[in-house]
Design goal:
heterodimer; A: alpha+beta; four-stranded antiparallel β-sheet; 10 helices; about 25% strand; elongated; B: mainly alpha
C-alpha cells in the first residue's frame, strides 16, 4: 500500500467514456472514513455504455461527498482523500464551497447544468436555483439574463429538440388520472436517453435509403458457416462501411457548432445487446485494415466480451460511425440516431425476398434496405447518397467473381 | 459420451427440439443447423464452458461454428471422453 496522502486531495470524476460529459454514481466500494490504497477502486459509475470502476488517485482516508444514484459531471469533485477525517473536515471548512458538505444549505447542481455552465463559461456556483437544485434551465436563464450569450428560447427549442429538463417536468394534471404510477428508468437507460438527447440537440438529423441486393452477402455468409466460421452479415456491413469511409473521409468527421473534427482512424461501432438486454456499441478499431474474416473474428470477440460483461469502457465508446443490423425481426428499415461525436449511422433491415424482373421473367432477389442517418448540418444529400451508394456497391460486388469468394 | 454432452449443450442453448438435437453429428455446422445463430452461439459457448469446466478465449469464438471444431477444441483443452 502506498503512503497515505500528506494533504487533502479533491478527487474529481475522470472522463470514463469519451462520449459522456458525466456519469451516474452507482456504488461506493469504500466506506466513508476508510483507508484506501492508491489505485484501489473507490466507486462504480455508469456511463452511457457500461459500468466502470474509478480508482483512487492517491492513498489515504476517504470522505465521500456524493450519494449513490446522483449524476456526476466529468471534473466534478465526488470525494476527498486525506491523512485523516479531521484533516479533511478542516480542509472543507476552510474552503467551504457550494459542493462541500461543510455547506449543506448550498443547492445541489445537476451534471447537465455543470456541463452547460462550462460551455457558456459560467461559474455554476453563481447560478441561482429555482428550488434546491440548479438545473440546466437555471443555467440557461442566468446566461440569457447576463446578456453575454444568445440562447434560443427554450419553448421554441422544445418543438424540435426535447431537452432533458423536459423529461423531468411533472405530469400534466389532466393526465394524472389517466396513467398509472411511473416507473424509474434504469440508470443505463437514463444514460442512453441523456446521450441521445444531447446528440439530437447537436446535429440536424436527416436520412437517405437504398435497397441492396444481398445474394452475394448471403452466399459469403453461408460459405463460411458451412466451413465452421460463426458469422452473419454484420462483418460485411462493417467491411463495406470501412471502404466507403476511406473513399469519403468527410463522412468520418463530426460537427460541433461551426467546427468540424476529423476522426484520425476508421474505428466503427456496431449496435449490440448485452445478455440482460442493454444496448451497447462495441467498436472495431482500424476496421479499414481488416479483411472480412478478421472482422468476423473481431465482432465475435467483442460480442462474447459484451455477453460476459467483460468489455472495458474504451471498447464500447468512440468510433467515427455506427452500424446497426436489425435482422432479428422482419424489419424493413429503421431510421436511427447517431452516436455522439459521429455524423453517420448505417442501419440495415432484415434480408427479404423481393421479386425483380430479370432475363425476361420475375425472380426472387434477396434484398435489404440500407438507411444512412447523417448530419445535414455537415453533409448534404448528395454526399450522403454517394457514400451510401459506395457501401451498396461494395456489397453488390460480392456477387461478381473472382473478386468475391462466394459461389 | 463426449458428443452426447455437446449435443445436450446445443439443445439447451439453441433451443432445439428432440429430433433436431438427436440429428446432430460431427459434421453439423452453423451452416446446416437452423437455429445456430450468432446470438445463440454466445449462449452455446457459456453452456459448453459450464458443462466441461473449460474457458474459451473470446478471440476463438468465431471459429467454433461446427461440432467438429468444438470437439477438437475441447480435446485440446484437456477434456477426455468419459
Amino acid at each position: 500500500m502506498s503512503a497515505p496522502a500528506e494533504q487533502v486531495v479533491a478527487v474529481r470524476m475522470p472522463q470514463v467514456n469519451v462520449n459522456d460529459e458525466g456519469v451516474t454514481l452507482v456504488g461506493w466500494r469504500v466506506a466513508d472514513g476508510e483507508l484506501v490504497a492508491q489505485g484501489q477502486t473507490l466507486a462504480e459509475v455508469e456511463t452511457s455504455k457500461s459500468v466502470d470502476e474509478v480508482p483512487a488517485p492517491t492513498g489515504g482516508i476517504v470522505r465521500r461527498v456524493v450519494e449513490i444514484g446522483r449524476p456526476v459531471a466529468v471534473g466534478e469533485v465526488f470525494a476527498y482523500i486525506g491523512p485523516s477525517t479531521a484533516d479533511i473536515d478542516a480542509f472543507l471548512s476552510a474552503a467551504a464551497g457550494p459542493v462541500s458538505p461543510a455547506n449543506p444549505s448550498a443547492p445541489r447542481i445537476t451534471a447537465g447544468a455543470v456541463s452547460l455552465a462550462r460551455r457558456y463559461g459560467i461559474d455554476p456556483s453563481q447560478v441561482p436555483a429555482q428550488g434546491d437544485t440548479i438545473r440546466r434551465e437555471d443555467v440557461e436563464r442566468f446566461a440569457r439574463a447576463s446578456g453575454k450569450i444568445t440562447i434560443p428560447d427554450a419553448s421554441a427549442a422544445r418543438t424540435t429538440s426535447p431537452t432533458l429538463a423536459e423529461s423531468e417536468e411533472p405530469l400534466p394534471p389532466a393526465l394524472a388520472e389517466k396513467v398509472g404510477p411511473p416507473e424509474e428508468l434504469s440508470n443505463h437507460q437514463w444514460a442512453v436517453a441523456q446521450h441521445l438527447s444531447r446528440t439530437r440537440a447537436r446535429l440536424v438529423p436527416c436520412h437517405v435509403a437504398m435497397d441492396a441486393a444481398m445474394d452475394g452477402v448471403l452466399a459469403w455468409v453461408e460459405d463460411r458457416r458451412r466451413a465452421g466460421m460463426m458469422t452473419g452479415p454484420l462483418p460485411l456491413l462493417l467491411w463495406a462501411a470501412a471502404a466507403a469511409l476511406k473513399a469519403h473521409p468527410r463522412m468520418a468527421c463530426f460537427r460541433l457548432g461551426r467546427r468540424v473534427y476529423p476522426h484520425r482512424s476508421i474505428d466503427i461501432a456496431f449496435a449490440a445487446r448485452s445478455r440482460d438486454g442493454r444496448l451497447f456499441t462495441p467498436v472495431v478499431r482500424g476496421a479499414d485494415q481488416l479483411a472480412p474474416e478478421q472482422l468476423v473474428e473481431e465482432c465475435a470477440r467483442l460480442n462474447m466480451g459484451l455477453f460476459r460483461g467483460q468489455l472495458k469502457a474504451e471498447e464500447v465508446s468512440g468510433g467515427c460511425m455506427t452500424v446497426s443490423l436489425l435482422d432479428q425481426q422482419p424489419v424493413l428499415y429503421h431510421v436511427g440516431l447517431q452516436n455522439a461525436y459521429q455524423s453517420t449511422l448505417l442501419t440495415a433491415g432484415a434480408i427479404r425476398e423481393q421479386v425483380i424482373w430479370a432475363g425476361g421473367r420475375a425472380v426472387p432477389q434477396p434484398t435489404a434496405t440500407l438507411v444512412l442517418a447523417y448530419d445535414h448540418g455537415l453533409l448534404d444529400g448528395w454526399e450522403a447518397s454517394a457514400f451510401l451508394a459506395h457501401i451498396r456497391g461494395t456489397l453488390l460486388a460480392l456477387t461478381r467473381p473472382p473478386g468475391a469468394r462466394c459461389r | 459420451m463426449f458428443l452426447d454432452k455437446v449435443r445436450d449443450c446445443m439443445a439447451r442453448a439453441l433451443e432445439l427440439d428432440g429430433p433436431t438435437a438427436a440429428a446432430i453429428t460431427e459434421t453439423t455446422t452453423a451452416g446446416n443447423l437452423p437455429g445456430w445463430t450468432s446470438v445463440a452461439h454466445l449462449s452455446l459457448i457459456l453452456e459448453l464452458e459450464t458443462a466441461f469446466g473449460v474457458a474459451f478465449d473470446n478471440g476463438e469464438i468465431a471459429s467454433l461454428g461446427s461440432v467438429a471444431a468444438i470437439l477438437q477444441r475441447l480435446v485440446a483443452k484437456g477434456v477426455r471422453a468419459a
